[in-house]
Amino acid sequence: MLTAPIRDLAAAKQSDGSTRARKLTGLISVALGSIVFLWWGLTLQSHATSRMVDFRVIYYNVKVLLDHRDPYNALNGEQLAMDDGDKPRVNPIRLPSEITLVYPPSALLVNAPLGFLGRIPAQRMWLVLNGGGLILSGFLLWEIAADFAPILAGILIGFLVANSAGLLFQGNVAGIAVSLCMIATWCFFRERYIPFAIVCLAVSLAIKPHDAGFIWLCFLVHPKNRLRAAYAFLLTAALLLISVIWVAHVAPSWRGEMKANLISVSARGGGNDPGPASGSSTIVNSDINLQTIIAVIKDDPAFYDPVTYLICAVPLILWAISTWRSEMSPFRFWIALAFLSALTMLPVYHRHHDAKLLMLAVPACALIWTRGRRLGLVGIVVTSMAIAATADLPRVILTLAESSISFSTSTALEKLLTILLARPAPLSISLMALFYLYVYWCGMDVEALTDSSGKST
Q1: What whole-number distance in Å separates Cα of residue 319 and Cα of residue 214?
Q2: Which residue in 55, 226, 269, 431 is a FRET match for 438, CA 20 to 30 A apart?
C-alpha cells in the first residue's frame, strides 16, 4: 500500500533535482557569457587606439552644454576633445565628425551628471553602466525564462551577452537605453520596484525613443501596465520639456542643426547610408534596419524609405488588430514583446548595439519550446539566427570570409546574393518578427500548444 506513495515521492525528488540541475546549467551559461563579455570588451579597451568612440558624442556635448555652448555644433565638441587631449589636434576640423550630436536634448539632460566628471572617471562610469546594465538584464530575463526552459534560455542569453563586447569597446549609449528598457520589463512582470521601473523606462525613452518606443506601446495596451506606461510617458515628456528649454536657451537654432546633423551622417556614401555604396558597407559595421535590403533593389531614399515604412506598418497593424480582438494573457504578452523587439530594429536606423533588445524574445522562445516542440524548434531557429546575425563574433567572421567578394547590384541575381550574403541581420530579424507575429495572430496560448496527451499540436 505504501509502494505507490513512496515511488511518487521519489519521482518528485528526482524531478526537483533535475529541475535544479537544469537551472544551474542555465545560470552558469549566463554567467560564462557575462565573463566572456567583460574579458573581451575590457581587452579591446586596453589595446585598441580608437576606443569609446560613441561615448565621446554624449560626454563632450554634455560638457559643451554645461559650458553654455551649442552642443549641436560639432565644432564645439571637437575643440573640447582636442583640448582634453582625447583627439589629435586638427585644423580645419572635418565635418561631420564623430562627435556630431544626433540625439534629442533629453539624452543630454539624463546624462548631464557625466559632464561634472573628468574624462577617465566618466569613461569608467560609462563602462559600468553599459556592462553592468546588460549583464543584469541578462540574468533578470533568464530568471523569467528559467521557469520554462532554463538551459535553452541560458544558452541564448549567454551567447548574446558574450557577443556584446562592442558595447564596451565603442561605448554606444544603446547599451544603457536597451538595458533600462529590459530591466523595466522584468520589474513590471514580477510586480517589483514599480517606481524604479517607471523611471528606467522613461530614461530609456528619453535617450533612444526609437529603441524603447514599441516596447512602451506594448505596456500601454496591456491593461495591467497601462497606467505605468502613462506615468513613464509623462516623466519622459517632462524630461524632454526641461531639456528643450535648456538647450533652446543656449542654442535657439538647435532643431535645424539637429536635422542637418542627421542628414549629414546619413549622406550618400557615409557611415549611416543604408545603400550599397555606404561607407560602412561591411557586415561588422552595417546598419540592420530594413532600408539596407530595400536599397539593394533601388538605392534611392525616396524609394526605400516609404517602402520600408509601408512594409513595417502592415505587421504593426496586424498586431494591433490581434491585440484589440483578444485578451493579452501572460503568454501573449511575451510573444508581443518578442515581435516588437524585432520590429523595432526595422523601420529606422539601428545598428547591432540596439539589437541587444532581442533578448526580450528569449522568454517567449522558451515558452513556445516547452509547450510545442515543432513550433518551438522553428522559434529557436529564427531567434538564434537573429541573435547570431547581430552578434560580434559571427559578424567579424562573416566580414573576413566575404572580404574578397565584390558585391554588385547590376542584375536581379546579384541583388539577391547581396541581400542573402551581405545583409543577414535585417533579413534574419524580419523572419523573427514574422514568426512571432504568426504565433500572436493565431491566438496561440500555453494550453493551445499542447493536446490532451501532452504532445505538440
Answers
A1: 11
A2: 226
Which three cell numbers mark 353?
548595439
Q: Which residues pair with 450 in a beta bridge?
A: 456
Beta carbons within 10 angstroms of residue 321's beta carbon: 11
CA–CA separation, 15 vs 17, rounded Å?
A: 5
Could you read off the pLDDT of 113-159 as tens digits, one per residue? 999 998 889 999 999 999 999 999 999 999 999 988 999 999 999 99
| Close Cβ partners of 239 (under 8 Å, ≥ 6 residues apart) | 106, 109, 110, 202, 203, 206
CA 79, distance to chain mean position in Å, is 31
Nearest to 380 by CA among 395, 398, 367, 396: 367
- C-alpha span between 220 and 372 (Å, rounded): 29
Crossing angle for the helix pair 362-371 and 119-145, nearest 10 degrees? 20
Between vectors from CA 369 to CA 34 and to CA 334, what angle results, nearest 5°?
70
* 29-52 residue pLDDT tens: 999 999 999 998 888 877 666 667
Q: Could you read off the pLDDT of 197-233 as tens digits, one per residue?
A: 999 999 999 999 999 999 999 999 998 999 999 999 9
Q: Are 327 and 445 in contact (CB under 8 A)?
A: no
DSSP string covering 291-319: HHHHHHH---HHHHHHHHHHHHHHHHHHH
> Which phi-psi region, left, alpha or beta, contains residue 268 (left: φ > 0; alpha: ψ -120 to 50)?
beta
Which CA distances in Å does 4 have to 17, 18, 83, 255?
A: 20, 21, 80, 75
Task: Report the alpha-carbon distance of residue 437 to residue 341 in Å, rounded.
Answer: 11
3-state helix, strand, coil in the chain (%, to 5): 70, 0, 25
> What's the grid cell of residue 35?
565573463
